[in-house]
Structure formats: C-alpha cells, structure tokens
Design brief:
Among the domains are: 32-144, Spermadhesin, CUB domain (Jelly Rolls), CATH 2.60.120.290; 160-260, Spermadhesin, CUB domain (Jelly Rolls), CATH 2.60.120.290; 284-408, Spermadhesin, CUB domain (Jelly Rolls, Sandwich), CATH 2.60.120.290. It is built from two helices and 30 strands. It has helices spanning 2-16, 414-443, and strands at 21-23, 31-35, 42-45, 58-64, 70-79, 90-94, 103-107, 116-117, 122-128, 137-145, 160-164, 177-183, 189-198, 210-215, 220-224, 233-234, 238-244, 253-261, 284-286, 291-298, 303-307, 321-329, 333-343, 353-358, 367-371, 378-381, 386-393, 399-408, 451-452, 455-456. The radius of gyration is 41 Å and the shape is elongated. Residues 1-24 form the signal peptide.
Length: 518
C-alpha cells in the first residue's frame, strides 16, 4: 500500500507542476530558446538520450526567465567522456545570453556537476562532443529562483535534486522553518553535497539560524551555521534536512545537491580513487546488490574502506548478500587488509557466512585469511599488488567493515626467504637423526640380550620397566648382597631402575633377591 500511495503522490506532483522536456534530438549548431516559468520543473536531455550521444555534436540552449527572476541549473544524470581540462566532450554554462559572458561551469566525466545559477534573467548552456568517444549523456534540470518566502519543494522519488533556503540566493526571511525528507529506493543511500552556505554565525551550538541533518532514526548527523561549507554526508536510505531562522539577522542561505544511489564516483573514468590518510572525509566502496563484483584501485601510500551495505555500514539487499572486491594498487606496492568489524547474528560457523581474503586477483589464488561469525579484528598483507575479497552471508543483517592500505613492498619475496629456511631445517633434522642412530648401533650389545656386570638378563620385551621398590620378601627370609660374578637364580624377573639406560652396555648397581640355600 505504501508503494501505491507513493506512486499516486508522485503522479499528483507531476500533474500539479507543469513539466517541459527539451529533447535535443537534432543539434544543428543553432541556439534553441527555452523560456523558464515559475512553478515548473523543466529538463534538457543530451542528443539521443538514453542512448549514447552522437560524435561531433554542438548543441546550444538559451534559457530565459521573466524580469526579476534568476535561473538555477542542476544535473541528475551525467556521463561524458573524461579528459584533461575537459577538452573533449563537455557541457559549458555561461551567465548570460551567449558564450561570450562569464563562464559558470565546464564539466566532463561521470561526476554530477555542481548546481549553478544566473545573476540575471538569462543563462546559456552548450554541449560539445568530439569524434573519439561517446557515452550515455546527461539530464539537466532548470527552475526559476524568485523572491519568495516559502519553502522550495522537491520532487518525491527523484534520483537527484537540489534543496535551498527560501528566497535563495537573496536573504532568507526571518522566523522561517522548513523541512525536507529524502528517501532512496531499497538498498541505496542518500548523499548530500553542500554547494553554497552562508547563515548567521553562532558561538555556541548554532542556536540561532542553522541547517540540521537527521538520519532515518532521527539521529542528528550534523548541525551547521556560519559561512563554512559543511562536508558531504552519506548515510542510510532516508535523510531529513531542516532549516531554521530566528527573528533577527538574515543572510543569503544555502544550496545543496542530493543524490540517491549505491556509490558516488569521484570522477575517474574506470577506477574509483580515494583520498589518503590525511583526509578527514571518509571514502568507501560497498556491496550494491545480491551478487556483484567491484573493482577498487588504491593509490600508493593511501587507504580506503570497503564494507557491506547495512545502515551505518549501508544496507544489504535481502535476503542474502554476496559480493566480491577486486582490489589493486601500483606495482611495487602491497595491500594491507585490516578487518575492523564483522557481525553475523545467528551464524557461528563458515557454513552460513564468511569473509575470505585471497592473495591475488581471483578466487583460485592462495587464501590469506578467512573470517566467520562475529569478528572484531584481523590483518593480512598481500605479497603482490592484488587482493581478492569475497563476502557471503545467508542473512541480510550480516555486515562488515575493513580498511585496505597500499604500502611500499619489499624487493625480496617472502617465499624466497621462507623456503630456504625450511629446507635447511629439514636437512639438519635428517642429519641429526642419522648421526644419533649410528651412535646407538655402535654402542648397543647383541640383539635380544643385555648385560649387567656379566649377569644375563631376560629380553626387554618380557621385562616390565616401572618405577618401584624391591620385591617384597617372605617373612624370615634372609636378605643378602650378592657380589658378582656368581650367577644367582631368581624367582622373578629383575625389576630395572627407571634411570637405567639399557643401550649403554654395562651398569653397576645392587640387585636384591631371595637367596635359596642349597
């Protein structure tokens, strides 16, 4: 029922708000005029979208608003060729009627550009593609910014959008409170990036004007004021943004971009690169579906975090999770895998869930570590520049978090050190055993007999060697010391002291026995 209600609400919003789609199906190099009207959410698509755009294209749009209004442009899809200085496929936005006005942005690659807005009633956008590479393209949205004290609306279910203070970029009104809630589809999370930020400064806990961000449990993730732009926030599948102004002092307010998805690229065309240790922004890569394989590249002397998708660890898609991380770094460097935590409720063996780390780039490479159940730590290091990590669980609530670091490798392989040592130890042990056996054979007497001061003894196999005292004597029996070398008939097998070494030939000791008078 909730999904049906959400669909009806989304349909109602789209029916209420007029929407114009500008489809650039043919770009002939001319300028297409587009008129922006208040209370409309309008869109511009790249040529051929959602299919790849064509080579050698040149498309131009001039967006015009009514007198006294400004125009805001933001993107919800952006996938262009990536190159240095964006001298290949690109989107350029200018603050005026044509490309001879001040440039507001120039973008390429696959990261969403920051939203921009005009200082006047006109804004000019140009898309250019070369003859080398074509990709999916872009979806841009534009809306009118007007002098209004109301709280700007967002479109329910949109994969990306903007939130800004009332009357932005002019001063926000006094005593105003606004609240926006962003919900991502199951298994995805919400990402916030602040673009502009200028609120009243407070010396204690932002008690005057502020922006507050809460997660789906209404736990505060941040409360901001002043003029410093807050750091980006990524959390669970739902975020709430609150704005509050008091009865005095107003400023230009804030503008932020929100996205929903599994991961958010940093701009690299193939690999996702991550910040080094010194960064205060945590970058991570996570599982994103029932079964997936993720390639992660770690820059030399830096680290990154990999994790499952559950709440703070992000959410895993029920009923189970299975994902693979193929991690690599620069040649000459090794990868250090440090497990920070792993939790598998109700699972106490590897049959229902595990995390395996292999020394290489495939599932057939040597196993460095296997973790099962609930584990709080564990560290392994690769011998090369690749690691293969597999996380598998029968339960959707299972989760883990680990850090992978790139460290300078040694020129000497571990195997080159360990193998010679093992061989040397084995050879030494064999030689020692041979020498010992040779000494024993030389010093031993004839097989099946022993001598004690020339007294013949029974074979050892028939003699119980225990730690005991002399045999008990019958009452009235005379005990004597029998001097050698006379033979003495014995009524029972001789009990040898436990300290006697039977292999060392002759040993002098006293034998106690029963003398039989004849």
């Amino acid at each position: 029922m909730s999904s049906i209600a959400s669909l009806m609400l989304t349909t109602l919003v789209f029916l209420t708000i007029k929407h114009q789609v500008v489809q650039a199906s043919a770009c002939d190099g001319g300028v297409q005029r587009v008129y922006a009207e208040y209370s409309r959410n309008d869109s511009i698509f790249s040529p051929g979208y959602p299919r790849s755009y064509y080579d050698s294209q040149s498309c131009q749009w001039r967006i015009i608003a009514s007198s006294g209004y400004r125009i805001l442009i933001y993107f919800t899809v952006f996938d262009l060729e990536s190159c240095e200085s964006c001298n290949c496929d690109k989107v350029e936005i200018y603050d005026g009627q044509n490309q001879y006005y001040n440039i507001l942005s120039k973008s390429c690659g696959n990261s969403l550009p920051d939203p921009v807005y005009s200082t006047g009633t006109d804004i000019f956008m140009k898309f250019t593609s070369d003859s080398m590479v074509s990709r999916r393209g872009f979806v841009a949205h534009y809306r009118v910014l007007n002098d209004s004290s109301g709280c700007p609306s967002i479109i329910p279910g949109a994969s990306a959008g903007v939130i800004y203070s009332p009357n932005f970029p002019w001063s926000y009104p006094l005593s105003r409170s606004c609240e926006w809630r962003i919900r991502a589809p199951w298994g995805q999370r919400v990402h916030l990036k602040f673009i502009k930020f200028n609120l009243e400064t407070s010396s204690f806990s932002c008690e005057f004007d502020y922006v507050e961000v809460l997660d789906k449990y209404n736990t505060q993730l941040g409360k901001y004021c002043g003029s410093d732009i807050p750091s980006s926030i990524s959390s669970s599948s739902s975020l709430t943004v609150k704005f509050n102004s008091d009865y005095s002092n107003t400023f230009s307010g804030f503008l932020l971009l929100y996205q929903t998805g599994y991961s958010f690229p940093t701009g690299a065309p193939v690999w996702t690169t991550y910040r080094p240790y010194t960064s205060t922004t945590v970058q991570y890569h996570s599982c994103s579906s029932y079964s997936s394989e993720t390639s992660v590249y770690v820059e030399s002397t830096s680290s990154t975090s990999i994790r499952s998708d559950y709440d703070d660890y992000l959410k895993t898609r029920a009923p189970y999770s299975s994902c693979t991380f193929k991690i690599s770094t620069k040649k000459g460097y090794n990868l250090k895998f440090s497990l920070e935590t792993m939790y598998m409720p109700g699972c106490y063996s590897c049959s229902c869930g595990y995390l395996k780390v292999r020394d290489g780039s495939s599932s057939s490479d040597p196993l460095l570590g296997e973790y099962c159940g609930s584990v709080s730590s564990g560290t392994v290091t690769s011998t090369g520049n690749h690691l293969f990590v597999v996380f598998n669980s029968d339960y959707s609530s299972a989760r883990f978090r680990a850090t992978v670091s790139s460290i300078k490798g040694s020129n000497v392989k571990v195997a080159a050190i360990v193998v010679p040592i093992v061989i040397a130890v084995v050879l030494f042990s064999v030689i020692f055993v041979v020498i010992k056996c040779t000494k024993i054979n030389r010093s031993a007497g004839p097989a099946g007999s022993s001598r004690v001061n020339d007294v013949p003894l029974q074979p050892l196999s028939d003699t119980m060697v225990v730690q005991t005292i002399a045999p008990s004597l019958s009452p009235g029996t005379l005990q004597v010391d029998v001097p050698p070398p006379h033979s003495i008939p014995l009524t029972a097998p001789v009990q040898l002291p436990p300290s006697t070494d039977h292999s060392q030939g002759f040993t002098n000791f006293t034998v106690e026995g029963e003398y039989v008078q004849g």
